[in-house]
Task: inverse folding
């Protein structure tokens, strides 16, 4: 059984010119330890697809299952635990420190402050930003903000990490490091579903996907052919 399975998922939004279809019969399966990256232009529905996959948003039709459980009913229970969705808006928490930020979710689970701080420090070390533990969130650059967001999420030990445009706004010299981090998390057994608007964001993925006019395809177009996944695994599928 797949960890995550989307079957014929569709999503529509109302607009001034009538209803607009963002996703059309999208089918996707993801197993433990796989990294899938969805490429698409702005407005292609990448973020909508990821929100539905994480259980944040509900599709209009089709089913989304996590370990066999329907996310339409179990999404609230799984999100923030077995399903991690890193938030990029760290700077909204004015005055909050990095270590405090990463610790919050652990404390909410009833973990003791001492153990929560230890787990938070370990997560920061895992994403290679432990030196920022004593900093304020407002002092972080984009790369550090992404890493801290991932640290807060993996501190809760999710089975699935869903992250929207992890390299957006990140300095060019830092982007490969973020992609390598996602690859290494997948290698450790965490399934990762990410999105990107850049062809370089597909590097290191097991599955390079394209979302275009609401349809998800399992092969990149010609202009992205030079950016190939590292490997493909049996039993995986994507269909429009």
Result:
């Amino acid at each position: 059984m797949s960890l995550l399975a989307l079957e014929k998922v569709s999503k529509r939004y109302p607009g001034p010119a009538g209803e607009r279809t963002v996703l059309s019969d999208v089918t996707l399966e993801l197993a433990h330890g796989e990294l899938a990256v969805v490429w698409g232009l702005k407005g292609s529905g990448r973020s909508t697809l990821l929100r539905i996959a994480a259980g944040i948003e509900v599709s209009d039709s089709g089913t989304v299952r996590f370990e066999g459980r329907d996310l339409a009913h179990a999404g609230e229970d799984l999100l923030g635990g077995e399903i991690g969705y890193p938030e990029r808006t760290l700077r909204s928490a004015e005055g909050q420190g990095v270590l405090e930020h990463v610790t919050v979710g652990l404390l909410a689970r009833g973990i003791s402050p001492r153990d929560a701080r230890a787990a938070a420090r370990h997560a920061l070390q895992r994403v290679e930003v432990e030196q920022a533990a004593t900093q304020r969130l407002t002092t972080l650059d984009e790369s550090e903000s992404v890493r801290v967001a991932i640290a807060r999420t993996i501190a809760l030990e999710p089975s699935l990490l869903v992250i929207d445009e992890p390299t957006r706004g990140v300095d060019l010299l830092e982007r490969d490091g973020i992609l390598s981090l996602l690859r290494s998390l997948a290698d450790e057994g965490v399934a990762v579903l990410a999105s990107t608007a850049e062809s370089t964001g597909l590097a290191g993925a097991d599955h390079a996907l394209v979302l275009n006019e609401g349809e998800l395809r399992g092969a990149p177009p010609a202009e992205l052919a030079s950016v190939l996944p590292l490997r493909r695994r049996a039993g995986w599928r994507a269909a429009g």
About this structure: The chain has two domains: 1-82+158-234, 93-157. The two ends are 21 Å apart (CA to CA). The helical segments are 46-54, 71-78, 98-108, 113-126, 142-154, 172-187.
